[in-house]
Write a structure and sequence with these properties.
There is one protein chain. It is built from 8 helices and 8 strands, in the order βαβαβαββαβαβααβα. The protein is an alpha/beta fold. The chain has a single domain, classed as Spore Coat Polysaccharide Biosynthesis Protein SpsA, Chain A, CATH 3.90.550. Strands 3-2-1-4-7-6-8-5 form an 8-stranded mixed beta sheet, sandwiched between helices. Strand 2, helix 2 and strand 3 form a beta-alpha-beta unit.
Length: 253
């Protein structure tokens, strides 16, 4: 018998994403609508964690909203993505109505500069029903933001198939029970996603790596944190400009 899921908690850290947060929230709203067509009983709660924002991210988020889901916004001054994700999840779990049974809750992680696919949440729900505790999806850079040749370089280097090796905080999901068992996100300024998934594996949890859940993230070459996806794209750019024998080394990409 399939497990019964009570709700999905979407957690989004943001640092000065005024230009991208609306598209992110609209994509989550579209995914929520798709989920409710298939599973109308499931509750969706979206927590946006504003980390050291000095622009209009909050105003844009409130004006956009997240149709079909309850949107909660809180602020912190970490300048640390691991701490932001951890606080966002802690807040989401405390504010959800069914916190007594984390085994029935799913946590879906993305980023404020990312657009998730329409079937994102329903895909997580299906994975949960099939017994999954941890699911890693794939991402691609926004084709409107990167030169065609850089996108081609990325596509050549990146594995788009089931069982892929990639781990992205912009497209990651796990049961609340698994997350709590592993101890949550560490306060790392980068690589917090990779580190958490490794601890989940160390606790004996199988990680389902799928390319069916494929998100689009920012293609900018100068990112909000060192060691993130933007740095990976920048390495590809440098390789294209002269270091053709080198291979980008960002482990989370």
């Amino acid at each position: 018998m399939a497990r019964e899921l009570k709700g999905i908690l979407v957690v989004i850290p943001a640092h000065n994403e005024e230009q991208r947060i609306a598209d992110c929230l609209r994509s989550v709203a579209a995914s929520t609508a798709n989920l409710h067509e298939l599973h109308p009983q499931l509750q969706v709660q979206v927590t946006l964690l504003l980390d050291s924002c000095t622009d209009g991210t909050e105003r844009t988020a409130r004006n956009t909203g997240c149709k079909g889901a309850m949107l909660r916004i809180l602020a912190a001054q970490f300048r640390n993505v691991g701490s932001s994700r951890a606080l966002g999840i802690e807040y989401a779990l405390q504010s959800f109505s069914d916190t007594a049974d984390p085994a029935r809750l799913w946590i879906a992680c993305t980023d404020a500069d990312t657009r998730v696919p329409e079937h994102w949440l329903s895909g997580f729900a299906e994975a949960y029903a099939a017994g999954a505790e941890v699911v890693t999806g794939t991402v691609e850079p926004d084709r409107d933001e990167v030169p065609q040749q850089i996108f081609a370089n990325w596509h050549r280097e990146y594995t788009l198939s089931a069982g892929h090796p990639h781990i992205h905080g912009a497209n990651l999901g796990f049961s609340a029970a698994a997350y709590l068992r592993a101890g949550g996100f560490a306060p790392l300024s980068a690589g917090e996603d990779v580190e958490l998934v490794q601890r989940l594996r160390n606790h004996g949890l199988e990680v389902v790596a799928t390319d069916r859940l494929h998100a689009v993230t920012s293609g900018r070459l100068s990112g909000r944190l060192k060691g993130g996806f933007a740095d990976y794209l920048s390495e590809l750019t440098q390789a294209q400009m002269g270091s053709r024998g080198s291979t980008p080394s960002n482990a989370s990409c």
